[in-house]
Design brief:
By secondary structure, the protein is of the alpha/beta class. It has helices spanning 17-28, 42-50, 76-89, 104-110, 156-168, 178-207, 212-216, 219-225, 232-241, 243-265, 269-286; strands at residues 9-13, 34-38, 56-58, 69-72, 95-98, 118-124, 145-150, 172-175. Strand 2 (34-38), helix 2 (42-50) and strand 3 form a beta-alpha-beta unit.
Length: 288
């Protein structure tokens, strides 16, 4: 990794929201000498070339052999499945990183890469409830926290290269170990999706007996259920690769939900007010 980033070739595998936004940001910043986009979608490949976002597009993973930096931007379990092939195809001294939302299983798989490759886990803390290249935007990463989870084998040079890539797309790098990352995002990222999905099922159960449910649904329901519309494959993989932490977060949530239910059922105004005020005060201080 002796080349400056602006002289490197970067290959992005998976051109949906995250990979597409990265491609747009890298092109906008002229961050590399050559950008290779690898996707099975022929329409996306045509758009990338027509808009001069990528210098080359392909459906063939073998094209990563031409890259100095390889970014895997597919769903998490696809990343894990791809890594052995990446290890066999990537040229010596290249850097492999991913954009997966869970890190422990990815980092374990990265540890099995050949010794001549550099590797680091990554997770940008941003996104949308829509998916696909059509939803990508160049400023998606701007001002976002971008977690980096080094492996035991990650060199200082590889970490510095990853931080440079993060900063050039406008994000803020934060170094965490994979275990800690997965425990924290279970509560602040994965639990909200699970709650939104459960909310939809609750409303669906009511709507089965009274369709006016959907007529009355307004902004509050729209906002709190928004995440339930997110990409199912992506979220299925997230939940399955962080199953223990998400299950624990759901149990804690269920405990608080039961406290709320009991206070409401008992018309316990003191407990209910304290419960609501504590949440409201913290929420206001976090997001003004």
């Amino acid at each position: 990794m002796t080349l400056p980033l602006h002289e490197t070739t970067i290959a992005i595998v998976g051109i949906g929201l995250m990979g597409g936004s990265l491609a747009l940001a890298l092109r906008e910043q002229r961050a590399c000498r050559r950008l290779i986009a690898i996707t099975s979608n022929p329409v996306t490949r045509e758009q990338l070339l027509a808009r001069h976002i990528a210098d080359e597009t392909s459906a063939d993973l073998q094209r990563i052999a031409a890259a100095d930096v390889i970014v895997l931007a597919t769903p998490v379990r696809a990343i894990i499945e791809l890594l052995p092939r990446v290890g066999a195809l990537a040229r010596a001294n290249s850097l492999v990183l991913d954009l997966g939302s869970t890190k422990r299983e990815v980092v374990r798989a990265m540890e099995q890469l050949p010794a001549h490759l550099h590797a680091i886990g990554a997770h940008p803390m941003c996104g949308k409830d829509a998916s696909g290249f059509a939803t990508a935007e160049a400023n998606l990463y701007r001002d976002a926290v971008f977690v980096l989870t080094p492996l035991a084998r990650t060199t200082p040079e590889a970490l510095a290269r990853a931080q440079e890539l993060v900063r050039i797309v406008g994000a803020r790098p934060l170094i965490l170990d994979a275990e800690r990352h997965d425990r924290l995002v279970a509560a602040i990222s994965h639990l909200p999706f699970a709650v939104a999905t459960t909310l939809m099922h609750t409303a669906l159960e009511l709507a089965n007996t009274d369709e006016t449910t959907w007529t009355l649904a307004a902004g509050g329901f729209r906002d709190t259920s928004r995440l339930a519309a997110s990409d199912v494959t992506m979220w299925r993989d997230i939940l399955l690769t962080n199953h223990d932490n998400v299950a624990n977060a759901l149990r804690v949530y269920a405990r608080h939900l039961d406290t709320l239910a009991q206070a409401i059922a008992a018309r316990d105004e003191t407990t209910l007010t304290t419960f609501l005020e504590r949440a409201a005060t913290k929420r206001r201080t976090l997001f003004r």
